[in-house]
């Protein structure tokens, strides 16, 4: 099974889930806000050197929503958190790569200048809200100090702005909760406070790592609406998730990561309707909305992600791939262009000479 049509035809079109509301809004000619080139990040552990991100390149344009998707441990969070340099070092180390953001290489920018960009021009939403909130201070104080660090506002004006964003992110009784400590709020409310803090300065880029996993579907929809609304002022969003449904609903383009490398990229409709990489095909098959109605269990991708301490030679998806060939064990497949800006790192996609 090596032909392009065989791979592509194996995935159903996502007819059971609503069409993306925003796909296709971004022109290819819009200038990139962020360009990451050949980024590699490792962690020094007691067991050896762990490769978290391996030669990753990506770009995101103003006003674009880019999804970075893959299983846990594939390196997507490390790649994303490397943008504002939030990977602790040690144990993390950037081996190579540039991170060009609005004309500056964040990888080498002095920390004093980087601090001004964080929060102000790049907002970050973490999986764990306590990564962003101090347990020692009331949430209102934290929000007001963040606002005043980057905006010339009086304390009372900053408090009004903070209240407004607590309301926008669905915090009940903002006037009552603004003076709460984080531990006095539920996990979902803490998550919404952190999202409010990331969005309230209307940054140029928001890096959101599984931003709504802890929230119920109603609040999740509300947060996604807020993020989409920021596009009207050209804010770009890099959305990290393991959920292909979120990618479909929110994103213009998707990058699929596997074992520290990008294995597929393309416009959202193309990636879903005609996946170029067997791993993407497997991810789509395991989506509830795409599974056959009679299926008792969703078809999971067999096997396990290889250890980042010891990646095998050749294609890292080889042990799980139904199309693996002898040559897949010889070298890592490069990203082949598929047309329409799509790419896939699979020997099945090598142009016929
Ligand atoms: Fe499968 Fe990798 Fe070979 Fe492509 S290159 S057929 S993904 S093993």
Please outline what is shown here:
The chain is an alpha/beta fold and 353 residues long. It contains 11 helices and 12 strands.
Task: Write a structural description.
The protein has helices spanning 4-9, 76-81, 111-117, 139-150, 155-168, 174-177, 187-199, 217-229, 244-250, 268-273, 278-285; strands at residues 32-45, 48-61, 65-69, 92-101, 104-105, 122-125, 205-209, 236-241, 253-258, 261-267, 336-339, 342-344. With 353 residues, the chain is an alpha/beta fold. It has a domain at 134-202. The chain has an eight-stranded mixed beta sheet. α8 links the parallel β7 (205-209) and β8. α4 (139-150) crosses α5 (155-168). 42% of the residues are buried. Residues 278, 315, 317-318, 321, 323-325, 328, 333, 346-348 line the site of iron/sulfur cluster.
Question: How is this fold's topology laid out?
Answer:
Blueprint: H1 4-9, E1 32-45, E2 48-61, E3 65-69, H2 76-81, E4 92-101, E5 104-105, H3 111-117, E6 122-125, H4 139-150, H5 155-168, H6 174-177, H7 187-199, E7 205-209, H8 217-229, E8 236-241, H9 244-250, E9 253-258, E10 261-267, H10 268-273, H11 278-285, E11 336-339, E12 342-344
Parallel strand pairs: 3-8, 3-9, 6-7, 7-8
Antiparallel strand pairs: 1-2, 1-4, 4-5, 9-10, 10-12, 11-12
The structure holds iron/sulfur cluster (SF4).
Iron/sulfur cluster is lined by residues 278, 315, 317-318, 321, 323-325, 328, 333, 346-348.
